[in-house]
Model the fold of this input.
Amino acid sequence: MAEADAAKTRTGNNGVHVFGIRHHGPGSARSLHRALEELRPDVILVEGPPDAAEVLPLLAHAEMQPPVALLIYRPDEPRRAVYYPFAGFSPEWQAIHYGLTGGIPVRFMDLPQAHRLAGPAGEEAAEAPPPEGSAEPPAEPSTEDAPPAEAASPADEEPSAPDPWADPLGWLAQAAGYSDGERWWDHLVESRRDSAAVFDAILEGMTALRAALPPRDDREEAQREAYMRQTIRAAQREGYARIAVVCGALHAPALVDLPPAKADAALLAGLPKVKVAATWVPWTHGRLLMAGGYGAGIESPGWYEHLWQTGGNGATSEQVAVRWMTRVARLLRDEDLDASAAHVIEAVRLAHALAALRDRPVPGLPELNEATRTVLCFGDDLPMGLIHDKLIVGERLGAVPDDTPVVPLQADLQREQRRLRLPAEATQRQLDLDLRKPVDLDRSRLLHRLALLGVPWGRLNRVAGKKGTFHELWQTQWDPAFAVALIAAGIWGNTILDAATAFARAAADRAPDLPALTSLVEQALLAHLPDAMAHLMERLQAEAARASDVAHLMAALPPLASVLRYGNVRGTGAGMVGTVVDGLVARICIGLPGACASLNDEAADAMFGHIMEVQGAVALLQNPDQRAAWQDTLRRLADQAGVHGLVAGRCCRILLDAEALSAEDVAQRLGLALSRAANPPAAAAWVEGFLRGSGLLLLHDEALWQVLDTWVTNLPADTFTALLPLLRRTFATFPAAERRKMGEKVRSGPARPAVATTAEDFDAARAETVLPLVARLLGLAPAG
Done:
């Protein structure tokens, strides 16, 4: 009898039953499922996009595995898209699945995205809060289930009053004595046993809240509720007697008693409309997180899934906690951390004790986390990060049926994934590809083509510990947002190969300069786009002939050198690039001395980077003629008057490493650069250019150490103080072990020529003066 009386509070005109829910909550889902079984509705209306009506029946397909999301997008502007995520514990998912499997008509009733996506993408569209699951980060929090927003304001301005509608659950939580709305809703709804009566309490609380809040100045929200009411009226006109309405809790009071239809019709009149398309895409638990910018997001999808799976099997609250702690212990043991059965028992006891102290009926996630940190993690927060990522959030990627409508580009990618045995995964996966194997080579080409199209499924890492040029290390991780990028890339072609080819040709025509064009050539060769290469090479030759900026020429060389070095390994025809590379090297060698004249510090630092890139490219090419021309240019720069010390010092270091200069020649140049006649800042720049990145040369070459030691020792005190920041910047780049060895070498004294043969010739005062200076130089003592 009490159940029947309570049900009247959520029943409006003509048999409309309104169920206010949390968009992703196991308690709401369980209670809703029970309520629907009791009601046996004739039709189920769910807050969602009516644009997805054609693909809605796929939800009940045997191959549909949540989490998944409805994707609504504009075919003319695919990047203007909206996601509607669903997990297995989402109440909407359970309501739709109940209806579809029971032969009950199911309809979405929210304002169609055909209207909501019709507005401009600029300022006008940004003024309104985005729909739940917007593909773009929301401009402001959703009005449901979001934490209170704290708006920062300048200290000299009067802070604006907070929007009372920004966190409606927060007001109810405060009245109940909770710290925030998330905790209040979780304890009262999501963590409780299933009960249909909870919807009456939700409706009563939301009705009182809406009556207490000031009128809401949000036209789109008013239009959404008006459209929902119009959908309910349409169901009534069709003769449905028991209408189940599933909507966000805050909307529930507006749908119980329907006002006259005329006002709603006027509010919806004249709305703009565009063509939209709908499909299903796999989703991840990580993208259900509130912290990711999803307005209707939650904090712990993995925990909610555990509540749904365990609580639905008749498990008690004790069993829910025990099974959770068992999962935690299993995870820790998999990571070689101690976790015994005794630990699990004690952690469960502690969680129940904490719940009792806090007057909670059952332990929630906060209590279980505190017990886990104390008992299983021994107070260490580091394992808790692992538990958060693997269990509390969870690494789950949903799946959609093969007959889900997709654009041709997506279908081609799915075929390639099956052919190459390269499934999309939510977790990070390391791929070590051997390019000598056909399958691995095709995998590499696919990942490079997708990266070219703006779908960075894989990230190429540096090869460590591998010999040869035939290895690639990739780190792959699928992001559901790639679905939108694939739809947008569909304008370039119906297959990955055709789309990447067309995109590369168009990008070559838009390339702003020679470095951008050579980088594109490298990407096209790595992606194996032979049909695009002829056009790219024409553009490359024309741009190289016109380019006169030496810095641009130097930046353009490394990608082309990589193409020449590794092209044959990948089975690509890279020989056509050789002529362009020969011309670039020749023009760099001719123009570099003039480009290095009269550089300031900032320009010299940039030129330092360019010289190192060209040096790496020349070493990679292994062409004796190019190497000889390059070393002649470096020798001219090292001896050229007016060249910045940073550049001159680096040229000497490169020549020394290549054995094009002897240690004696370098010591002579170092002595000239550090002579008393030299400008001290210029001398410090020369030292920085010569030593940047490695101090091993000083440790093993006594002649160079002696020259530098003499120069530092003879600097006047005021000059040394002025140069100390520059010198410390150089020595700070050395590894700590190298600096420590330098300090030990100073302490033991250098192997000087035998000029002091007796104790009377030894200058103890001078030695005591040198040690502090060198210690300050190496960063072993404060600069003051």
